[in-house]
Specification:
CATH superfamily of the largest domain: Rieske [2Fe-2S] iron-sulphur domain
Number of strands: 9
Largest sheet: 3 strands, antiparallel
Radius of gyration: 33 Å
CATH topology of the largest domain: Rieske Iron-sulfur Protein
Number of domains: 2
Oligomer: single chain
CATH architecture of the largest domain: 3-layer Sandwich
Shape: globular
Structural class: alpha+beta
Length: 207
Amino acid sequence: MSETESLESERPVADPSRRRLLLAGTSAVGAVGVAAAAWPFLASLRPSQRALVVGAPVEVFIGNLEPGQIVRVQWRGSTIGILRRTESMLAQLEGLAPRLRDPDSSVADQQPEYARNLHRSIRPEYLVLNMHCTHLGCVPSIFPEVGPQPFDANWRGGFFCGCHRSTFDLAGRVFSGVPAGRNLLIPPHSFVDDEHVIIGVDPEGAV
């Protein structure tokens, strides 16, 4: 036997079953790699936890809200204000009708039926309203003090939108002669107890 023939006879014979096993193993590792690479992409397609709760009711603790104070929360992408009005604030709502565009909240979709009253709320003390101006959506500032202001010489307290100078009273009713054409919106809401209000849920039995 020649040296060449000897070397050829010592070469391992390919095992078809072993080759198939190696190919299967390589394919499996590759599949795991592809899955691992794809996971961040697939995960990005899943809605985030925040997205899952958008539009869900929001419960707000108001037990430490002092008279005259306002707290702001987010609900459905909007700023919702909860104002605890004083007796003097509520008194300022009287007698403003001649100066208001819609003093009786006649436009039905501006508030739920249970908030269609002088104070535009379930409980007169607490005003729950969407803070976005009904002109172009800016968020007005609250000016609760009674007295002359640069934007109103006969100011009796309320909200002033610095974007285009629209004004609203302490019930969110719009004044006449300003860019905003509608009252501030009152969202659905209800009270769990004396210290908690839920934004996004009507009172039981409300129609």
